[in-house]
Each structure stands twice: as C-alpha cells, then as structure tokens.
Design goal:
Elements (H helix, E strand, L loop, with lengths): L1 E8 L1 H5 L3 H10 L3 E8 L3 H7 L9 H8 L4 E9 L1 H9 L12 H5 L8 E3 L3 H11 L8
Helix pairs in contact: 3-4
The structure holds adenosine-3',5'-cyclic-monophosphate (CMP).
Adenosine-3',5'-cyclic-monophosphate binds next to loops.
C-alpha cells in the first residue's frame, strides 16, 4: 500500500550540509518528499516528540542534541514507505548499518545518527501530525 512516514534530517547532518545528499537517497529509493520544512526545535518540543524514550538513559542528551541546531522535518510517501525508509536509513547504530545506507555513509555515532524515521503506521500518523497540518501535505 502507498504509505506516508515522518522523516527528520538531524542536526549533525544539517550542520554538515548533507540535506541534499540524504534527500537524493530517499528519491533514488522511490520515496517522494511530499512535505518538508527546516525548523529549530526547543528542547521541550524534542522531548515531547521523543517521549516514548523518556525513561532511557540517553533521553536528556537526545533532546539537547535535537534542539542544538536546525533539523529538516519531512513526509515521505511511497509504496511501503515506512519499511523502505528504514531500509534506506540503515541500523540505528552506524557501526551496524549496511553499506550504502544513510547511516553507514553519514552518521557520526548512535546518538548523532543523521536521520529519524517512523517505525510503524500508528507512529507515522502521530509523528506527521506533530509537525504538519493537512494543508501542508500535497501528495
Ligand atoms: P531515532 O531513530 O531518532 O530514535 C531514537 C533515537 O535515540 C535514536 O534514533 C538515536 O539517535 C538515539 N539513541 C538510541 N540509542 C542511543 C544510545 N545508546 N545513546 C544515545 N542515543 C541513542
């Protein structure tokens, strides 16, 4: 089925001017960028977005990092977009990411890992609604 998923290009990647190279990976995989904006999160907004990780030891560091510099939030659309995006991103830890994936090529560490992608249809819907209104989504 055609799905939509929420993607974030993280501060380590925007800082190194990698937005275009990362977007090229998505487009080459057949994902269409149907919404996109560059924003700077507050630590509170990052904390709300990542609240499922609130009990993890890295939560504070994660929220601080995500608010440290601008991010690019985007909606990717395509056949099986959620799984396809996760395939293109590679494993969370770049040390485990397959060759050719975004994290293998660009991520600096498990924390500063260049991209985020929704993990399931329910979270994709929630995460898209967190950043975008219906008017901003143009398939
Ligand atoms: P992401 O897919 O955005 O979802 C949660 C994020 O937490 C994850 O990518 C990593 O950036 C971060 N994360 C996961 N594990 C660790 C860890 N062990 N140390 C620091 N950050 C982590």
């Amino acid at each position: 089925a055609v799905e939509r998923t929420l993607s974030i290009i993280k501060p380590d990647a925007t800082r190194r001017n990698l937005t275009g190279k990362i977007n090229a990976k998505f487009e080459e995989a057949g994902l269409r960028i149907v919404a996109q904006k560059r924003i700077q999160l507050t630590p509170a907004q990052a904390g709300e977005f990542y609240k499922v990780h609130a009990e993890r030891p890295f939560y504070g560091e994660l929220c601080e990092f995500m608010a440290s510099e601008p991010v690019v939030v985007q909606v990717l659309e395509g056949e099986g977009a959620i799984a396809k995006n996760r395939e293109v991103m590679g494993a969370t830890n770049p040390a485990d990411a397959a060759a050719g994936t975004i994290r293998a090529e660009f991520a600096e560490s498990v924390g500063e890992n260049s991209v985020h992608g929704s993990d399931a249809p329910e979270t994709a819907a929630e995460e898209i609604a967190y950043f975008f209104s219906g008017l901003e989504l143009v398939g």
